[in-house]
Fold this protein.
Amino acid sequence: MDDLAVCTLLHLGQPAQRCELCPEPLWPEDGVRVVLPRSSLQKLSSDTVRVHAQCARTQGLA
């Protein structure tokens, strides 16, 4: 199984992840990192997530 994973990475590149703002696959070269603020009920910090550039623009995060 490890050999198959190495061969796949060498020939096809990194696998897709999921966009945090839509259900579509997110390929490494298509994503951007954005900071999503947490609600005031949670800790005073933020989450950094990877999303499609278009999804970030649509949500006003870019």
The longest strand covers residues 31-37.
